[in-house]
């Protein structure tokens, strides 16, 4: 919305007005037809009819209300989420059943264990590749870009929706370490976009773009909310991940939709007899009275800091893998040929390593992600007195027990293996997220620390008499939140964790660990989503770091491009042509005159192109040619009427071009007309096709056309592009760019255009001073400022210039009255 | 920050630059002095010294970091919060002790019960009145206004801090139904502002205004966070209550500081041996496995809806009381005379009604707020099988039991009485909030519904065999969150409730109830804070309602003021004078010429005033008079030199004024000079005081001065005031105004100024179409649009006008060369 605001507000406002007018006409038409219907059925029970029509009208007017839309969105997403979960559960069940049924033969078992995910992942990759390649990956980076106001093509279509939902179900059903959170944000946004389109059949309000953006923001919250049944965490996570500035006005929308969605999602589980009542997804049962001792806090802080490093490493690893595959030309070429080879290979490696009778036995390989998480959050201690064997394993926890190695080794192996596996798996070209795998790894790490603590202090730390043994499950909760927070650079994972586990007793450890993890990770690497944005080269604006003072000291004048391309109000088409040839900026500044440089507005590149093509385009060429031909014909007929046969013959000797009508239709560029020429006699020229011009005549005409002044009458001008002043600080510029989702802003000084700042310059300036190595580069011009003249002086000089201009402007005008005469022609 | 951005960015940028330059100079000076010190001490262990200096430098540079500031802020606030809680607890204890010790005589007991709060409240009211009247009330409305960019005087000073802390402690210690949340937001902001000032002694970064606003936003979160030990809820609540647009960049600041603060606040309780470990403030012990049945959800929804109405009623009642007191002139006059009478009266009424042996016995009058809340959130059922007597009351729960009436009557009485008491008490002129009283009332209402449900379904609702009795405490939690949410229009009370109780098991009921309560309350009344903002007439921007389509259909052109006051670049001082006289706008538009109307920038009113006073001010008058006098003297001396005694005599006969020097010093307005005149002879005029002008001469001079062109050289111009176009929708305008905290925006059409929209117009437009009665007024001009010309046409005409102007502009210029000549003088 804001991106559009400055870029083409004028256009947009007009379009919107036209739409509204149209829809109101349409509505009044339909009203009229309805009342006609009413008259027709007058014979019947008229009262009943009137009532029905009123109800219908009322319903249709109500459909425009936000809450109806949000309820529908929540409902649809809950159903999608539940349906997908159901399918995924069946897929995983089938995998287990196949593997379990073949326990007589290890080789067959291995084949079953490996083939199943390979087939599913290959299908998923192939399906999305064919139907909608946009569905690949998480979707959060794209949504962040879209919510910034950038239009990404094909990202919100029905095709993508189908590809994403089916692809994701298959990918998750394969049992690979992939998550559904990121894709769900995308799916929810798709749902919202499609629902908007559908609802716009009823009322015009759904065609409003700024409203759609608001709804997309709510949809992101719904996505996370119904994925984890975590409405609050969902809203917060989606805000942190997708927005830079958030309208509190939209807050309730997210909460409303996410709550409704989470409610329906959980109610479905109750109705399906999976659960007795609505509770958390991964319910924990830690003791309430004494969740942790104060002296355990250092351990939680250690988890936080370690998770910070781990999260940064994960992002780095993920990027490294993508870049390695891209830069290794031989690999790349090979993979490009056989597109499905990469997913097959990766799946093969990962599933081989997790094969339960093989290496998988040392890393609880046979557990699905959900099962691992449930066991990791268990409130019992696995390693009592350091001897793992004493623990009475039940259910899935059995998988963590191994006769030869103790539980610590299993946990360490699990963490290390899953770490690189997840980083690798998230690079697969299937719809997939990284949140859940990271969450599980974090939980395992937390459990490891917790078990170590429990082994170290078998009777707990508390010295006040009562024995409160250490709860390693609490550590797992803390670890999960911390690592997930570090990878995504969010604090709201803490809230998600509380909602997932249904317990908030560990709030302080979780908050401390998450904040520490964020502090460490943010200073080392961008978030996973920002990393993907950079890899995919989507437009972005880097965040300002933590407390970098330089931001307040760099000014727009240090980073702006002074050589602005502009057009003047009285420019000729030739100037326009030259400006358009010289670059491919999206918008051009319109100034009053080259001397005054007073900024009047900005015009889109496309608008100017159309202006130019109107002036020099085929229709005008044809018209000119036709006119010329008519004049020629007139002359000819004059000649033939008055002159003798010789005269007529002489005329037919003249070199003339006739262009066939069909040739004209085919050639897009009028200059090519002259290739399709035929010699012909003047007398043979029919009334309809008349193109009698010499080549040099056309050139002359073109030159004349180019020298004419541009007529901006039919051109859409944005009269208020965003303006900054030279002294605006980088910090403020960043704020304004991210607030309004700007792409560029003009720098003016008392109305005069003096420069332009685009996202690129801003990005450079920020990244130049926040380099990874810690060296803070100062922009070259910043140093000049300190010793420079005072700003009020410089402003005064600016004003003087303007002054002089005002005085002088009348002089050249007086000297060139021809110019103004030309204009009035 | 944003408010300032458009209003005086130029000024601000300059100030900032100057500040930075100054501070860097200062720093380099101090560095130099430090290195001088170093040289001096060279004789001693140089290495050690260097190390110390480096450490010092490092520390000072680190002090500028955000996190140090945030930790300090959190620490200070936790200490303040804990200290206040401690004092309040002692006060309440003393009250109880006095009351308990006098149980032999009811009259004495009554006197003790009543006098104590009256004295405390009177002291609190008097103290704040004398020290800092700004400390009165909640503080959240003011913080909302300040965060919008409006500068409120004296709101963030040390005096206010002292008044607020001491006043609040006394007010809460009196046992009146008042809360500490709102004032704590103010106290935290005060802390942050003072800390900023203190820290600015170390580094220049603390003088940056935009940073200070960021820190204030974090401080609001800390305020709520350390008040309830609810870091997440605190951050969210403060965002909802104070911001319209929130920078996600600032998010971590709030979380970091609030978490640290909450942590320290709870750690202090542990160290003080109040608690064994860090847990929630109002810990609940509801069962985890089956918190509620799905079929109980309608009851929760009912609580939500009823709370919505209740919340709206509370806000209405509160406003009614304030307005009643204000409008009733006799009461008002009486109260104004005896300022402390109102608090005394109110306290007397409330404490009389809660007197435990009197009416208080029917409404648990002897419980403090905290005790009531603890008992209300109890996980046991009070009314088993509808007979209250069977319940085994222990501890404070005893207070709810009455031999004659059952627990339902007690609860109803409690709710009704506390409702109006809280609404009344929050109008007292002491530092106080309304959150906690409302929270308690909500909890009581929830408990009432819960007890009714428990009486209705003694064996619970679940039909699956196992008996899960209904938990009325859960209803109390839901009711508390819902009513608090309804009064404050926030959803985050849900999160606060979870953090307060330490249990998240009722997340879905709470969310549903809070959202419903918000939906109902928001459609009936503004939030309590917005209501106070309106009562106090602070600048505000109403929120757009839920899904009002008209917002998308109203355009800026419908609401803008077309008669903009402006000044032109070549205007005379007379024009300036007239413009300044005609109104009291804060800023004026600067356009190129009255014909072109091209907007060049905006100038502050004060700037223009100073320009005018420079031109016509005393110093220039004096200078002129001095010049005149000198000329006169010269003439006189010429005359006396050349002429005879008669000539000299004739000259002395001339009427002259001499103004004494001291009279000049005293009179602020130079026109009054002429009152202090003396007849004097020319020969008697000394060199130093020379004021020899006729009155008509001065007037002539004034006229001449006024006809001169304004010299804008020393005037600070904001070169990029915010601009809108006529077709910008109301919705978008609202967004931009609240995003950037604008006060006004110019409406331009291709650079030409055509109107202005200020907060007032916007407010009118929004409130006009969202009237309480449900009648949606359409702005008078909106109807014209539908039948009007297409926008592209109108734009074209605009452009034509500009065109014509460009052509015609040279003509008048040519005809009036004198004007430009004048300019060059």
Largest sheet, spatial ordering of strands of chain A? 2-3-4-7
Please report the number of helical segments of chain A.
Answer: 32
CATH class of the domain at 294-383 and 398-536 in chain A: Mainly Alpha
Oligomeric state of the chains present here? homodimer
Average predicted local confidence, pLDDT of chain A = 75
What Rg of chain A is obtained from the alpha carbons, in whole angstroms? 35 Å
End-to-end CA span of chain A:
41 Å
Q: Describe the sheet with the most strands of chain A.
A: 4 strands, mixed
Number of strands of chain A: 10
Spans of chain A of 5+ residues with little confidence (pLDDT < 50)?
1-10, 385-391, 648-694, 769-800, 802-825
CATH architecture of the domain at 294-383 and 398-536 in chain A, by name, is Orthogonal Bundle
| Largest interface by Cβ-Cβ < 8 Å | A-B, 134 and 137 residues
CATH homologous superfamily caption of the domain at 294-383 and 398-536 in chain A: Clc chloride channel
At the third CATH level, what is the topology name of the domain at 294-383 and 398-536 in chain A?
Clc chloride channel
Helix content of chain A: 55-70%
